[in-house]
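> run fold Arrestin C-terminal-like domain-containing protein
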Amino acid sequence: MECCRHGQLQCNAFSNFLQKPSENEGHKTICCLCCASGPITGHIKVERMGYVPGQVIPVDGDVMNNANKTMKEVKVHLIQEVRYITQSKTKVCHVRAAENMLGQLGGNKPMLLHGTRILVPPLPPSGLLGCNIIDINYYAEVS
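> ok
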């Protein structure tokens, strides 16, 4: 069964890897000089790592605002990371390729991300075979 095809990139060669789920978690502490608030923690999970333009990425997870202040906007982003590689240096650019705004989150409150969706826009594929000067990757992020 063919999962996807983009130009000469044959996704069947990577189907086992692309079908694996991916998850990550992180935290951020808001500081104002000597006064640090409770951390804002997040956990995000996608059901697989391989998507093509036009597909929807279902995102699950949660965000816990342990700070006393309200977060004005919680967003889920699809980030495109492009590395330009030369013999002398590497430059990395991050671009928000897509986002879904989820609203605000009050202080000391949780938010579930169950069923959050990101539509994959037209984008170049990751893993450009035969290209050793540009490396493109994508990841989901909560901010």
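Helices lie at 15-18.
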